[in-house]
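Project standup — Tuesday

K.O.: blocked on the structure for the chain from last sprint. Re-posting the sequence here as requested.
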Amino acid sequence: MREREIAIRLAMGASRWRLVRQLLAESLLLAFGGAALGAVLAQMLSRGLVAFISTKNDPLFVGLALDWRMLGFTAALAMLTCLLFGLMPALRATHLSPAAAIRTGGQSMTAGRERFTLRRTLVATQVALSLVLLTGALLFVRSLRNLLTTEAGFKPEGVLTVSLDFARAQYPKERRHFVYRELLDRLSACPGVVSAAQIWFTPVSGSGWNENIGPDSAAAAGSGKESWFNRAGPGYFRTMGTGMIAGREFDERDNLSSPKVAIVNEIFARKFFGTTGVVGRTFHLEAEAGK
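H.V.: unblocked you, prediction finished:
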């Protein structure tokens, strides 16, 4: 597109190397400007994404300090882009005869299938690389959307969690159950509170404990089949908005003197019993004596 301009400059005495340097400087400015803008946007978007998925009680830390190796790679890629998409067209444009370029005109100079070979190759390469980056970005956005819209098994909206440690309050161990019960009753009576319940590990906290499992009469010790456990109080699943497929939720009948009961999910049922209809079935877990 600039062949006529370059031809006029060559006719006025400008050297070929002078024009190549000018075109190369223009490409270099664009390449390094894009690299710098990309580095700044990467920092901003990365920090924004980390802040978006972090919470006050569960902050996420990701090292986002500048990596000089990555900056060097970006600079090298910008230099390669400059040489590939700037130097080669500049050499081709300055290779033409000024008299022929002025005589035929810039528009007609581009006629002919053979003259489009280099241009088409460069454009195809740019489109291919851009398509790869665009596809990766779209896949990332789709994965993030899937994570945000995945059914978690509970409704986090409007749920307030409070962590308590009554051991520091020096309550006797035998009285802690009644203290918890009285606290839940008072919380449930507060205006705007739909329900309150007790849980040992809150969902998505990363905490829990696992034990070996022995379904029905099978021994748990040495079975190699593990499952994760938690402890929940009456009304917990109703408070969290988790539906029950079969059976019942924990209630006041479940205490230290009653038969031990458990609520399991479908994955547990299929893994250890091969079916989801496990109401009334039993299992053993490996634990210390007396627990």
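K.O.: great, moving the ticket to review. The beta strands are 209-215, 226-229, 283-285. The chain is about 50% helix and 5% strand.
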